[in-house]
Amino acid sequence: MYSKEKKYLGIDWGEKRIGLALGDGETKIASPYRIVGNIDKIISIIKDEDIDEIIVGKPVSITNYKLQITNKEYNKFVNELKKKVNVPIKFIDERLSSKAADALVGGKKTKAPRDAVAAMIILQTYLDKLNTKETNKNERNKNKN
What we know:
With 145 residues, the chain is α/β, with parallel strands linked by helices. It has helices spanning 39-48, 72-84, 97-103, 114-144; strands at 7-12, 18-24, 30-36, 53-58, 89-93. The chain has one domain: 2-Layer Sandwich (Nucleotidyltransferase, domain 5), CATH 3.30.420.140. The chain has four helices and five strands, in the order E-E-E-H-E-H-E-H-H. Strands 3-2-1-4-5 form a five-stranded mixed β-sheet.
């Protein structure tokens, strides 16, 4: 019996550009995908790529311990996305994802656009957490037997 692996879309939201990354549940590897300018392009990609889950980076300041998001445009984007898609949306702290994207080796001609790389880092962080949970669960089950 065929079991379809989940496909993930990572989103690094910005007021001017939105970075996107794709990943799947089989390899658990995220890759930069593209930059888009509006939510309609994201909706189209979700349908075209048959996305099962969306991971959105939460823009939180380093000093913000309560993790409150006050950016009205970000909140508007998230609310609109929730209304327009019937796909689970999860959120992950995106602190320093753009800085990490800048730190990756490569020149402008060889490196994917910064926002898409930041989206890849956001999605890879999520996939790594899933993988860690799965590994821990398997270890606990193995120890029971």
